[in-house]
Amino acid sequence: MSKSQNTLHKHLKKIFGFNSFKGGQEEIIENLRKGNDSLVIMPTGGGKSMCYQLPALIDDGVAIIVSPLIALMKNQVDALRGFNENDSIAHVLNSSLNKQQIQEVKDDLSSGKTKLLYVAPESLTKEEYVLFLRTIKISFFAVDEAHCISEWGHDFRPEYRKLRQIIDNIGRKPIIALTATATPKVQQDIQKNLKMENAKLYLDSFNRNNLYYDIRPKINVEKEIIKFIKQHTGKSGIIYCLSRKKVEEIAETLQVNGINALPYHAGLDSKVRAQHQDAFLMEDADVIVATIAFGMGIDKPDIRFVIHHDIPKSLEGYYQETGRAGRDGGEGICVTFYSYKDIEKLENFLHGKPVSEVEVGRLLILETISFAETSMCRRKYLLHYFGEQFDEEKCEEMCDNCKHPKPKFEGKDYVKKLLETMLACKESFKAKETVKVLVGESNSLIKQHAMLISDVFACGTEKSKEFWHAVIRQAYVKGLITKEIETYGILKVTEEGKKFLKKPYTFQLTEDHDYDQLKTESSGQQKGAAADMMLFKILKDHRKKIAKEKGLPPPIIFLEPSLTDMANQYPITMEEMSQIQGVGQGKARKYGQSFIDIIKKYVDDNEIERPSDMVVRSLANKSANKIYIIQNIDKKLPLSDIASAKGITVDELLTEIESIVDSGTKINLSYLINEVLEDYQIEELDEVLTESEEASFQELREEFDEDEYTDEELRMSRIQFISHMGN
């Protein structure tokens, strides 16, 4: 080890309490300290911030860190102050500060107390800041979340494209640009825009070996989520949902089941969102249920699980969101509930969009289906998508496909039968009708084609509808068939499919897992578990108390792996505490004494407590609303009057009525339906519902154009049908 490297390692241990660097951190820091530009592409949790924080703290001058989010800046500044006795070591300069606070920041910068200044790109466009920054010594510029520069990036920010001009205006210094994206086009755009074509590129592995990837069928999903969380009591987690409504529903369901959960979405008041985010960071809430609006600004290293209630619309989104689990290197379980109906919803979102956008969207969705349906190692598939090769044996059963391999079988004849059926149907059916033809079921559309399809009708009765849907999905993933988004998913045989028919080749099909037969306990392995779990719990509770007093997120006090190490090593002196993983001398002096006192007492007393189990509860029945709605429908009042009296929309009222009917109560809407529909229309809708698979609104909507029936007419007809036929 060279003298320079030895110095770096000493500083790393002294300031941050770490014994060694992660991945390419050391080489990146050395390159920056030599005055060279760098482009760092490193996955979430890979340790990007260390690449600029350590050199900023040990070199002369102040480092300017450009960051897109105020919440992200605040988290990083709090973390840095936690490692130092001097709170002036790091500051933010953004729109959240008043004039007095801005002056305090300037004074600390001028006096040399501050080593890192976090700024929003908008702040750097202000002339007064540019003039001031010219007067202080700058060590380098760091552009965090650098993909915001690129129009091809997923979080494009126009202000970022002006950064090079601003940097030149302040005074050129080395630039380090950092991002978690791997797209080559984004890389080129960043380098071109920042005029750093000669920058050294550091492309880290995208493998997060502590994350366990698990795709499960979407069956009894709320029950499964509750069961999973109760198996991980007291651990932090995020649940992602596609819609705001589903976020609210899941959060409420978890709350009545004794789970400390809060909702987060863009429809909430900004103050409420901030309160819920802080509650999660401060460990006053264990679980956040959120849309994808939540996450980018969250620097919480000990998130133990990320659950996707709905499949994400792209693998980039999936990788980014699952990457929020286990950023401290500890346990991180990523569970996604997969239903092909969710895919169809995503496809419907593309309808009516520009052709280029539809094509890109279709490809992204296809990759997501392929990932969900694949029987190969999830980690291998995901890394291959980002351009990285991976030996699946190194997965070490850290994905469901490696831990519970899916059975495979030769499916050549089944695929051939599917393609022949599609061609016999003149490629005019969606997946639903195609499967009906295969298993010998009919509806009004199929009857219209009866003469054409007589040769193939019921040719696949030896298998279930679920089986044939799986064949369609896997043939789609392999490119033998495609879907026309513009015609709501009509299936077509591709050129590759026609080649297959001429000369069929081996085609391995896979069967879905039966998750009921698998063990319910966590599949992800626990890395670095504490030997003394009771002491670990006491220390974690104390960390939360200290964090509340200081107004800081608990991981800022000590990371969870540090508490784990304390529960293994029992440090009872300041020197021993400074040797604990992730502590260091500064943090030991700042926060360590009270933890040392607790550990001393525990060692002497050896007290042990048992945590109590929680009981699963069902959601409360909203009986008052239910009775009111039934009584007023019996009075034959218009839906608009009933909705208005309860302060809800007609759409929300119909949802309530659907819930009432679906739960088995009889309701008669014929007085409303007869006003808006003719007898033949009522018969037509009843016929479609009678022959449908699930008597769902979605099936009705797909069957008829919007100029034939409105959503309200279809929903009322479905309610009346279910009430009459099923209740």
Name of the CATH class of the largest domain: Alpha Beta
Query: Which superfamily, in CATH terms, is the homologous superfamily of the largest domain?
Result: P-loop containing nucleotide triphosphate hydrolases
Beta strands, count: 17
Mean of residue pLDDT values: 82
Q: How many distinct helices?
A: 35
Total count of domains: 5
Head-to-tail CA distance between termini: 78 Å
Q: Radius of gyration, rounded?
A: 29 Å
Shape, principal axes of CA atoms: globular
Secondary structural class: alpha/beta
Report low-confidence residues grouped into runs of 5 or more: 513-527, 608-618
Report the helical percentage: 40-55%
- Report the sheet with the most strands, covering strand number, pairing sense and barrel closure: 7 strands, parallel
Strand content: 5-15%
The CATH topology name of the largest domain reads Rossmann fold
Task: Please name the CATH architecture of the largest domain.
Answer: 3-Layer(aba) Sandwich
Lateral strand order in the biggest sheet: 3-4-2-5-6-1-7
